[in-house]
Amino acid sequence: MRPIVAGVDGTGTDSAAVLWAAKAAALHQVPLRLVHSAEVTAVGALEDDPSMSSQAVMEVLRREGQAPPYARDAAATVQKIYPDLPVEVVEASGAASAALVGFQDEALMIVVGSGQKGGIGQFLLGTTSLNTAMHATCPVAVVNREVKVTEAFADRVLVAVDGSRDSAAAAVVAFREAALRSVPVVCLSTWYLEVVDGYVVTEPDSPEWQAIEERQRGRVEASIKVARSRYPDVEVQVEILHGPSTTTLAAATGRTNLMVIGTRGRGGFAGKLLGSVSHKVLEAAACPVIVVKAPRD
């Protein structure tokens, strides 16, 4: 079984992420793998051989029982809540994001915390969460520290759909999560400034407005075709929202406790690993957000 992999940094900002990962692993009936990675230097740790690699130093510390206890402590907390959940602890050395991304091929999902809270209700994406979301090929869940993990799972799963390959891949993950929870999927499609015949469309009752919304619905249906075929019993709702994508999607996270979004949208630059909309939604989200990347050619 493919495990859910969660990062543990020991600062306390990741406790919600670890508990959310454990809850998700129990729901999926898969093992949980807790990973802590530290930048370890040989100088001062082993005076007799300062040339040793950080991995070698970590191995020595582990054998002597002096490795950082954060992942083991997190595992003990998880197993008090989920005594039947298989939990594995991995203590690595080097950059945390590199350690987590190293499990991308075998992980069902990687879960990271979003870090400290910044201004205007936003969370600062730390290096680990940002780099993991950018580079991992498997889905990555970003969980902010204020998420109340004790609450019931969502009564709906939201997914942002814009016709891109990444949003189609996100739809498959959203349908999977909804099927496990026996809840509907709500597909969100946004549009904002549209010009028809030289005029900005502003009247909701106008034929132009209706035509734009029909176009958006068509994009949604095309994007969720594969997801529908895999999970035919999932109820589907479609919402066409008018407003800037970033603020509109971020606001929508306040009415659920799970959103799924692609790493890049239709307007994203081909070389960009995480689009500006996805990045800003992750920072402003009031709920966990799963970021999904379609396979690259």
UniProtKB/TrEMBL annotation:
Boundaries of every UspA domain copy: 1-143, 155-293
UniProt-recorded name of the protein: Nucleotide-binding universal stress UspA family protein
Family: Belongs to the universal stress protein A family.
Segments forming a coiled coil: none
Top-rank lineage group of the source organism: Bacteria
InterPro entries registered for this protein in UniProt: Rossmann-like_a/b/a_fold (IPR014729), Universal_stress_UspA (IPR006015), UspA (IPR006016)
SUPFAM superfamilies named in the record: Adenine nucleotide alpha hydrolases-like
